[in-house]
Design goal:
- With about 350 residues, the protein is of the alpha/beta class.
- About 40% of the residues lie in helices and about 15% in strands.
- The chain is built from 12 helices and 12 strands.
- The protein has helices spanning about 1-20, 40-45, 50-60, 70-75, 95-100, 125-145, 170-175, 180-195, 220-225, 275-285, 300-310, 315-330, and strands at about 35, 65, 85, 90, 105-110, 155, 200-210, 235-240, 255-260, 265, 295-300, 335-345.
- The strands form 3 sheets. An 8-stranded parallel beta barrel has the order 1-2-5-6-7-8-11-12, surrounded by 6 helices.
- A hairpin with a 6-residue loop joins strand 3 and strand 4 (about 90).
- Helix 11 packs across helix 12.
- It is globular, with a radius of gyration of 20 Å.
- The chain starts with a helix and ends in an 18-residue tail after the last strand.
């Protein structure tokens, strides 16, 4: 009964937020300002297309974001398989995305990854870069050819200001994980996407709001994109907001990068809350040419929610719904924020016990 109540309450909150801000910012690819990042669920827990569609129907969401990792669809050079098999049943991505669009759901695709067939032993730095970029271009072209008729927003990368996570390839990681390399990936992807459909949105992002080093914080990364002269290669700044064991309005000490002095600046006493961190990103971006911001990933860690729920004497799902709805209302009340994606996270191996990032089902 508690889970049913939580589900109904969260769906109601989601619907209220969407209603309040429907039609805000005409530059978004659809009218819904609130969406779900369902990548984890699709890649790890969805039993089949029918279950995935049913979940979308239950929540009534009209904007979702899903990743199509390069390594999942091109395991051998030039041989693409546009399907996933997370739990034993093949999910045809073309069919799934077409069904979503037919139901009026806006789909944003994340293009990212590192294919297993690429080998870098005994290659020079120049050859490592050229090999990666040539194959990256093929992957993007194939993805746009497959899904371009159904998709009109494309996120280029995830956690783009953090190093690649590639086991046993330290040299390649060091070479490929830098702003200059990402800038080249971004330009290639943008050219392919815009040649196919000029009005499609290209999202720089998911920049992690907390990188652990101010030299790779969002302000520093955006400065690098300007210096590398790729500011016109994207339409939207995507930010993955790191949350803490605090309510959305709670403040933390936060470091940012000053492009003028090249120094790391620490917030004054009292710190910044999540709204303040977004304002810092917007202020940094406006120096180079104003771009709308999408919060591309928003969720609280389960252990933080458990602690807060115990302190409040309430359910984890109630705290989660409270924090997500409050944060979304605050963010979408800002003119520079066009969309907020809540993260939709599997809880374990059993898909019937999935935590949706919103509720437990």
């Amino acid at each position: 009964m508690k889970k049913i109540f939580s589900l109904l309450a969260t769906v109601a909150i989601l619907a209220s937020v969407v209603w309040l801000f429907a039609g805000k910012n005409s530059y978004t690819s659809a009218s819904s300002p609130l969406g779900l990042d369902m990548s984890d669920y699709l890649l790890n827990n969805a039993q089949d297309s029918a279950q995935f569609m049913n979940t979308v129907d239950v929540l009534g969401v009209k904007a979702i974001k899903i990743a199509i990792p390069w390594q999942n669809v091109e395991k051998s050079a030039g041989l693409f398989t546009w399907s996933l098999n997370p739990r034993g049943t093949s999910i045809d991505l073309n069919d799934l995305i077409k069904k979503l669009v037919q139901k009026g759901v806006s789909v944003t695709l994340i293009l990212d990854g590192f294919p297993p067939y690429l080998q870098y032993e005994n290659l020079s730095e120049e050859n490592i870069i050229s090999t990666y970029l040539q194959n990256w271009q093929r992957y993007v072209k194939e993805a746009v050819a497959q899904f371009g008729d159904s998709v009109n927003a494309w996120q280029i990368g995830e956690a783009v200001n953090l190093p690649f996570e590639i086991a046993d390839k330290p040299i390649a990681v060091a070479i490929l994980s830098n702003p200059a390399m990402y800038a080249q990936r971004l330009v290639i992807a943008s050219q392919v996407i815009k040649e196919a459909t000029q009005n499609d949105l290209v999202i720089l992002g998911g920049i992690q709001s907390e990188s652990g080093d101010c030299r790779s914080q969002p302000s520093a990364f955006l400065n690098s994109m300007s210096l590398l002269e790729v500011w016109n290669a994207f339409d939207v700044i995507g930010i993955d907001l790191s949350t803490y064991a605090l309510a959305p309005e709670g403040k933390i000490m936060y470091q940012t990068y000053d492009p003028i002095s090249g120094a790391c600046l620490t917030s004054a006493e009292g710190g910044f809350n999540l709204e303040g961190i977004l304002s810092l990103v917007n202020a940094a971006g406006r120096q180079y040419g104003e771009k709308p911001i999408w919060v591309t990933n928003l969720a609280w860690q389960e252990e933080d929610l458990v602690k807060i729920a115990e302190e409040r004497g309430t359910l984890v799902d109630v705290v989660r719904a409270d924090f997500l709805s409050r944060a979304s209302l605050i963010f979408l009340g800002k003119q520079h924020v066009g969309r907020v994606y809540w993260r939709y996270t599997p809880a374990g191996e059993d898909a019937s016990g999935v935590s949706l990032g919103l509720v437990s089902q």
